């Protein structure tokens, strides 16, 4: 029986990465993710991996590019300003189809911002972030347990699709302590053989493996893009993960991911105590986004309300999915402020009554 | 010689042939450009040392961006300036492979200066090749960090002035100051003799790592850019000899450790 341990989110993620067969970590200190870097500096080398504290996030992500190009499990982690610095290379990694794990423990911005938690990097995470048409697989944990679980899932998805996977956490998930249980996972049972494309040294039996993202002829570059888009469609069809809470009979469904989904869950409980039929849909994957689930829900409910620690980013994707069938409200806080259950409850009461009025009129 | 019937040739010993480590693809480099010589030398050395299956190269952004078309080894194309960081990632994951990065002056000494300094300072067990021709060739002949005073480029139309554009960055002696650098040399490929010396330096660098040597081997090649300098290949080599080597003197700056 696996043992329960009390750990910080950042440390649980780091421990999970080692257990998932991490062979290389390349990172740079930034609050609130530094425990991840520190934990791996203490434990990774003794447990079979390489660790480098790089001179910058730019260098770190380019080390990831080189190491991922060798077909081994490698990762980096950072927080918002550092993640911005990595965008050029992430575009290269996506185009080169190099499997790796990225972690952004988001803090409030823009600019140097604050070290308090935020969800203001949603657009950057799910729409690409760097230049060109590409997508990451984006996983959004909402507990220390999922900070660990999504590492195993993330490496498996990265290997399966040859695509970078991003764990989009936030400062609170990174810093808070909760019990965590590590699954029984043997990396050897899950590793994918990448020797057909990875640069590992060219034996006489094959031609050279080259990792490049440069295709000057327009038709060749379009072919690269079409292949990527085809892959993204496959991912969208197969890899959506959600959690659905009391949506079956709901008039109003809250939509929230990560930390805010826990606050929204509390608000749902409070609203149910007040006799309101409120539910919660939590995307666990932000790309692929659960558009189909939301479209189906839109036929059932009278309204939705998106809760984010941002000015309203995921709400745009919810509105696209709902396509005008029902009103989609937004409740958000910014700059590191965490919304409280009672402020959500107050808004739920307002939205619930106005939506009922609309339906009745 | 393909297609030409020269029966008497079969009676002679082959003293030089195209390296098997080069692909059949013709170089895209301008006539007389030092990159052609360096690309060829690299692959000659890899073949002669018998390490084709163990060598992984990292190409830059710049004129040598397509070098992986010519080299019959596994290679990665890096983002501009990051070749040594990419090479670091490869070498740390596959420590028994021989890894080299290959960069121009803009790539290594402007946008990639931080990665250059820190890769050397960590003492990564890689070979860093630095082709310094004092200009951004690929983008059309702009001023480089290494451009000499008075040189006319597309962004210094009346010549590089120190007060406006700063000084030529002589990065290789800086590199030699770092403990992580085990071998630092500055060579050229403008004459047959220079080509032989450069090949010897390159061979020694690979052998150093093959024999378990640790730390960066850093080779600067002071080279030409006939197209960017608007000279014939011969004029460009004479320009190197008459003006450039004074500023960037050739020779070992930090010999191999005893």
Description:
The complex is a heterodimer of chains A (361) and B (258). With 361 residues, chain A is α/β, with parallel strands linked by helices. Chain A has 14 helices and 15 strands. With 258 residues, chain B is α/β, with parallel strands linked by helices. Chain B has one domain (25-254): Thiamin diphosphate (ThDP)-binding fold, Pyr/PP domains (Rossmann fold, 3-Layer(aba) Sandwich), CATH 3.40.50. Chain B is built from 9 helices and 9 strands. In chain B, helix 1 (34-48) packs across helix 7 (192-210) and helix 3 (105-111) packs across helix 4. Chain B is globular and about 60 Å long. Chain A binds chain B through residues 23-24, 26, 50, 52, 54-56, 58-60, 62-70, 72, 74, 88-89, 92, 199-204, 207-214, and chain B through 23, 52-56, 58-59, 65-66, 68, 71-79, 82, 85-90, 92-94, 97, 114-115, 117-118, 122. Strand 9 of chain A pairs parallel with strand 2 (74-77) of chain B, so a sheet runs across the interface.
Observed structural traits:
heterodimer; A: 361 residues; alpha/beta; Rossmann fold; 2 domains; seven-stranded mixed beta sheet; five-stranded mixed beta sheet; 15 strands; 43% helix; 19% strand; B: 258 residues; two-stranded antiparallel ribbon; 9 strands; 17% strand
């Amino acid at each position: 029986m696996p043992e329960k341990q009390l750990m910080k989110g950042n440390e649980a993620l780091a421990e999970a990465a080692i257990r998932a067969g991490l062979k290389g970590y390349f990172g740079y200190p930034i609050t609130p993710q530094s425990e991840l870097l520190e934990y791996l500096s203490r434990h990774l080398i003794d447990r079979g991996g390489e660790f480098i504290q790089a001179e910058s996030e730019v260098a770190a992500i380019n080390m990831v590019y080189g190491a991922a190009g060798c077909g081994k499990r490698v990762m980096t982690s950072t927080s918002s300003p550092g993640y911005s610095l990595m965008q050029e290379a992430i575009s290269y990694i996506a185009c080169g189809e190099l499997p790796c794990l990225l972690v952004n423990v988001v803090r409030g911005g823009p600019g140097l911002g604050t070290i308090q938690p935020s969800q203001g990097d949603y657009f950057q995470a799910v729409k690409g972030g760097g230049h060109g048409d590409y997508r990451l697989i984006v996983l959004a944990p909402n507990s220390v347990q999922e900070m660990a679980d999504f590492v195993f899932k993330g490496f498996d998805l990265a290997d399966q699709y040859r695509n970078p996977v991003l764990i989009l956490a936030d400062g609170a998930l990174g810093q808070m302590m909760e019990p965590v249980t590590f699954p029984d996972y043997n990396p050897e049972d899950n590793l994918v053989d990448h020797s057909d494309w990875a640069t590992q040294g060219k034996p006489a039996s094959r031609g050279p493996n080259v990792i490049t993202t440069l295709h000057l002829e327009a038709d060749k570059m379009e072919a690269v893009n079409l292949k990527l888009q085809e892959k993204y469609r496959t991912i969208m069809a197969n890899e959506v993960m959600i959690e659905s809470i009391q949506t079956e009979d709901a008039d109003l469904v809250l939509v929230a991911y990560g930390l805010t989904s826990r606050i929204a869950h509390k608000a749902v409980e409070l609203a149910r105590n007040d006799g309101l039929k409120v539910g919660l849909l939590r995307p666990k994957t932000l790309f692929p986004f659960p558009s189909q689930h939301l479209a189906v829900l839109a036929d059932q409910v009278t309204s939705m309300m998106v809760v984010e620690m941002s000015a309203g980013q995921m709400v745009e994707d919810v509105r696209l999915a709902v396509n005008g069938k029902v009103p989609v409200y937004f409740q958000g806080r910014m700059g590191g402020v965490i919304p409280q259950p009672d402020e959500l409850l107050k808004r739920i009461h307002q939205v619930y009554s106005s939506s009922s009025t609309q339906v009745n009129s | 010689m393909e297609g030409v019937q020269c029966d008497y040739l079969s009676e002679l010993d082959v003293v030089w042939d195209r390296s098997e480590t080069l692909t059949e693809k013709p170089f895209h480099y301008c006539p007389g450009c030092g990159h052609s010589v360096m690309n060829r030398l690299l692959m000659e050395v890899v073949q002669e040392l018998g390490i084709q299956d163990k060598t992984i190269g990292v190409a830059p952004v710049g004129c040598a961006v397509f070098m992986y078309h010519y080299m019959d080894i596994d290679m990665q194309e890096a983002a501009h300036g990051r070749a040594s960081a990419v090479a670091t990632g490869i070498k740390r994951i596959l420590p028994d492979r021989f890894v080299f990065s290959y960069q121009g002056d803009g790539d290594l000494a402007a946008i990639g200066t931080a990665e250059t300094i820190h890769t050397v300072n960590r003492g990564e067990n890689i070979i860093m090749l630095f082709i310094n021709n004092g200009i951004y060739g690929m983008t059309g002949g702009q001023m480089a960090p290494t451009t000499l005073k008075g040189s006319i480029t597309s962004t210094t139309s009346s010549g590089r002035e120190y007060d406006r554009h700063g000084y030529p960055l002589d990065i290789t002696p800086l590199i030699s100051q770092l403990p992580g650098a085990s071998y630092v040399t500055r060579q050229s490929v403008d004459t047959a003799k220079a080509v032989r010396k450069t090949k010897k330096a390159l061979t020694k660098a690979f052998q150093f790592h093959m024999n378990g040597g640790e730390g960066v081997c850093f080779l600067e090649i002071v080279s030409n850019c006939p197209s960017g300098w608007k000279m014939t290949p011969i004029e460009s080599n004479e320009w190197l000899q008459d003006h450039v080597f004074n500023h960037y003197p050739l020779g070992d700056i930090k010999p191999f450790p005893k």
